[in-house]
Amino acid sequence: MRSIHVDTGVADALAAFEMPQRLGFGVLMAPVMYRCQYQDGRWWDAELMPYGPLQIDPAAKVLHYAQEIFEGLKAYRVDRDRAALFRPQMNWERMNLSARRLCMPDIPRDIFMQAVQTVTAYCEDFIPRNSGQSLYLRPFMFGTQPDLSVAAANSYSFLVIASPSEVYHSGSMRVLVERNDSRAAVGGTGAEKVGGNYAASLQSVQATLAKGFDQTLWLHPSDRRHIEELSGMNFFAVMEGELHTPALSGSILPGVTRDSLIQLARALDITVHERPMDIDDLLALIKSGTCTEAFACGTATIVSPISVLGDADGQVYELPDTPGPVARQLRQALLDIQEGRGSDRFDWMSPIPPECYP
Ligand SMILES: *Cc1c(COP(=O)(O)O)cnc(C)c1O
């Protein structure tokens, strides 16, 4: 394994950390973080350090031109003695697709794995152990070169922070169809995990909340007809017992949870259709009772049932079954693997190597 410098403050930071009663999602930060910096064409030594503020040059490119990417994955310790990560290889591969899209250097596999494994190992005692709880890991990278010229930076920081968390938004959601704004563009960065995509979504999200809904449902940016996804979750609907999800369009983020649910559904003999999904067709199928369930999925939320779809014209379309049987079955099957109850038939769980522990 690559060597890692453990800061002298780490032991004190771990000893001083206290777990509160209520966790929320992504609010409480674990007491340590990982950092590796890229400069002069290479990655330098990695550090594990107490969680805390970063020093950043005010001219750093990320602060002006948004050269930033991130990932999200979880370490589980429910019904397990030792922590295990869920499909970290997928996050590493996707992070490098995002990096290439923003002209950033690839993160070598050993650096990415060392980062998520070491933070998980040091925080193992802080991984909550009730069903639905986990350590949410947030790898991210940004351009640090202090220079206002518009070009890719020549220096970067890659960090991993972590948050002991509950499931994100565990209730059922009211979702509003967005007919005007776009989250992503054709030829843009919708398929990559880029902070700027979220910035572009905020205006719609704010309006959605003000109208009494929980999430925006985005349509394809050029045809404004085909369903894409929610701001940070992929979309599924159930019709006559079969599962339908929008085919990846180039502006949809290819979710690890989406991929996992598709594989699980097929293994459970549920027919899966990845296809373009017209929003007006879907709303009509909800109205006629053919579409009985809709749900969203992502690492943070796992599976989040949708109870209502609202349209821009004020019409609301209620889903009868929330959470419906397919959503419940898939959520349980996925959690059983993540939380160590079911057999890991796809080899998705990745244990932490012993050498990562303090
Ligand atoms: C992260 C993300 C998802 C969900 O991906 P997972 O890998 O399942 O967590 C979906 N949509 C967007 C826009 C995202 O950023």
Automatic annotation (TrEMBL):
Pathway: Amino-acid biosynthesis; L-leucine biosynthesis; L-leucine from 3-methyl-2-oxobutanoate: step 4/4; Amino-acid biosynthesis; L-isoleucine biosynthesis; L-isoleucine from 2-oxobutanoate: step 4/4; Amino-acid biosynthesis; L-valine biosynthesis; L-valine from pyruvate: step 4/4. Signal peptide: none annotated. Its cofactor is pyridoxal 5'-phosphate. InterPro entries: Aminotrans_IV, Aminotrans_IV_CS, Aminotransferase-like, B_amino_transII, BCAT-like_C, BCAT-like_N, BCAT_family. Keywords: Amino-acid biosynthesis, Aminotransferase, Branched-chain amino acid biosynthesis, Pyridoxal phosphate, Transferase. Its EC number is 2.6.1.42. The keyword Cell membrane does not apply. GO terms for biological process: isoleucine biosynthetic process; L-leucine biosynthetic process; L-valine biosynthetic process. The keyword Amino-acid biosynthesis applies. GO terms for molecular function: L-isoleucine-2-oxoglutarate transaminase activity; L-leucine-2-oxoglutarate transaminase activity; L-valine-2-oxoglutarate transaminase activity. Acts on leucine, isoleucine and valine. Belongs to the class-IV pyridoxal-phosphate-dependent aminotransferase family. This is Branched-chain-amino-acid aminotransferase. It comes from Exilibacterium tricleocarpae.
